[in-house]
Amino acid sequence: MLRNIPSTTLRKLVRLSERKEVLMAQIQEIDREMLRVQDKFGIPAREGDQRAAVTVSRSRAGGIRPRSKRGALKEKIIRALRSAGKKGATVGELSKKLKVPSANLYVWFNGTGRSVRGIKKIGVAKYRLG
């Protein structure tokens, strides 16, 4: 079925789908803003109005936090491993303690963590400083 569709067409469909997703998120935000203004001034919604379905999507624009300073995660991890002592700490424990997604920590240990002196892997997803 999908074997006959050229890759260029598939790429175009993906781009269009991504564009549609962005536009739908913008429409939903406009709808939310309209509701806020109506509620603020006590404007009742018209009976014939069809509101766009407001859904919470995992868009890239939602929940933007300010970026941490360069090397901040490294410092947090080293501090946590130092406090854990010889027994070390698992990625799950570090995730809860540092309030960082465990996936970020796995990637950090696999990449940056390899070049940091003193960090040793002592088990499955378990590290210590020493």
Give a verbal description of the structure.
- The chain is mainly α and about 130 residues long.
- Helices cover about 55% and strands about 10% of the residues.
- The protein folds into two domains: about 60 residues; about 60 residues, Arc Repressor Mutant, subunit A (Orthogonal Bundle), CATH 1.10.10.
The largest beta-sheet arranges its strands as 1-3-2
Helical run tally: 5
Order of SSEs: HHEHHHEE
Largest sheet: 3 strands, antiparallel
Average pLDDT? 84
How many β-strands, per DSSP?
A: 3
Radius of gyration: 24 Å
Taken from the alpha-carbon principal axes, the silhouette is flat
Question: How is this fold's topology laid out?
Answer:
Elements: H1 7-41, H2 72-84, E1 89-90, H3 91-98, H4 102-110, H5 112-115, E2 119-123, E3 126-129
Antiparallel strand pairs: 1-3, 2-3
Provide a brief overview of the structure.
The protein is mainly α. It is 53% helix and 8% strand.
Index terms:
130 residues; 2 domains; 8% strand; flat; single chain; 3-stranded antiparallel sheet; 53% helix; 5 helices; mainly alpha; Arc Repressor Mutant, subunit A
